[in-house]
Amino acid sequence: MEKHANAATEQSAREQFVTDEVVESFASSNDPRFRQVMQSLVRHLHAFVRDVRLTEEEWNVAINFLRRAGDITTPTRQEFILLSDVLGVSMQTISVNNTAQGDATEATVFGPFFVDDAPIIGNGDDISHGASGQPCWVEGSVKGITGESIPNATIDVWECDEDGFYDVQYDDGRIAARAQLRSDPAGNYGFWGIKPVPYPIPDDGPVGELLKAAGRSPMRASHLHFMVQAPGYRTLVTHIFVAGDTYLETDSVFGVKPSLIKDFVEHGAGEPNATNRVLAGPWVSTRFDIVLAPV
Ligand code: BEZ
Ligand code: FE
Q1: What is the rounded CA–CA span in Å between residue 126 and residue 137?
Q2: In degrees, to the nearest 5, what angle opens at C-alpha 190 toward C-alphas 189 and 191?
Q3: Does the beta carbon of 220 lie inside 6 Å of ligand 1?
Q4: Atom of ligand 1 minimally distant from the CA of 223
Q5: Is 201 in the pocket of ligand 1 (CB under 6 A)?
Q6: Do 150 and 183 meet the contact criterion of CB atoms below 8 Å apart?
Q7: What ligand has the least distance to the C-alpha of 219?
Q8: Is the C-beta atom of 164 inside 6 A of ligand 1?
Q9: Quick one: DSSP state of residue 234?
Q10: pTM score of the predicted model
Q11: How many CA atoms lie within 13 A of 128 on its CB side?
Q12: CATH H-level superfamily of 84-292
């Protein structure tokens, strides 16, 4: 009995010795932030290994997984970002960095499909540029947390077509379903887009295997991306989601926030619309009032 107790104590001491040794190895760095991040990382990684009693075989599987994630990564296929996304690390980093302030709109994941220099449009214009999908009128205001209107805010919007693909996923160089516009002098905006649909994140690599092993869906809940910028305010990267969507509870990257779920109201072809657009079929509309936090 005594012997066992001693062995357990000895084992624990040996494990703690390794952790302490590695933590100490970063102690003399003269970059205090680097030191803090690395020492905390080591403590958490070692605690994880000890907690699950990681086997050497499992360690090998993990190393092989990371190697394969590297192999599949290209400038346009970033498997490590996907891994961060499906582990909720992207979303947690966003939460930590977009602290709650008044009723400032919540942020969510950026995703890989933003493109600089999207076509510039005016209020009331259409971002679809031929992308297939049901016409969708989107309007709202841009304000600060004390209620002041923010004119001339830069609003980038982007979304997939009704087949679930962003323009950059086609190899014909098309630019569609994305644009940049500005809030008007009263701080309002409005544009025509297409009704968001669900789509899978790339799942033909190691991250897809991870999802499959967990019995998780690769689907993202239907969404429309926004990035809103104005001098003196914190840049907001977010989406709006469609109320009633099948994947709201199981979004593969944990991007859904209840405050970002909006009603998309259905309208008949002949119903009047904000820009007197002539529509051949049914359309939808939604409202997204954006509140920016100060910097
Ligand atoms: C997106 O919403 O575009 C996205 C986000 C994370 C991973 C893949 C896609
Ligand atoms: Fe997206």
Answers
A1: 9
A2: 135
A3: yes
A4: 2
A5: yes
A6: yes
A7: 1
A8: no
A9: -
A10: 0.92
A11: 18
A12: Aromatic compound dioxygenase (2.60.130.10)
Rounded to whole angstroms, how far apart are CA atoms 285 and 273? 9
Provide the CA 59 distance to its chain's centre, in angstroms. Answer: 29
Q: For residue 94, give the nearest of 105, 80, 78, 79 by alpha carbon.
A: 105
Q: Counting runs of H as helices and runs of E as strands, what totals does the chain give?
A: 6, 12
3-class secondary-structure state, position 212: helix
Structure tokens at 29: 């760095």
Ligand 1 atom nearest 239 alpha carbon: 2
Q: Is the CB of 198 under 6 A from ligand 1?
A: no
pLDDT in tens, 85-127: 999 999 999 999 999 999 999 999 999 999 999 999 999 999 9
Q: Which helix (H) or strand (E) holds 239?
A: strand 236-242
Q: Is 221 helix (H, G, I), strand (E, B) or coil?
A: coil
List the structure tokens of 32: 């205090």
Specify the residue for token string 């290209």. 74
User: What DSSP string runs through 17-73?
Assistant: HHHHHHHHHTTT-S-HHHHHHHHHHHHHHHHHHHHHT--HHHHHHHHHHHHHHHHH-
> Is 240 near ligand 1, meaning CB less than 6 Å away?
no
pLDDT in tens, 12-69: 999 999 999 999 999 999 999 999 999 999 999 999 999 999 999 999 999 999 999 9
Residue 130: strand pairing partners: none
3-class SS letters over 157-177: EECCCCCCCCHHHCCCCCCCC
- Name the token pair of 162: 């009704």
Question: Closest Cα to atom 1, ligand 1: which residue?
Answer: 111
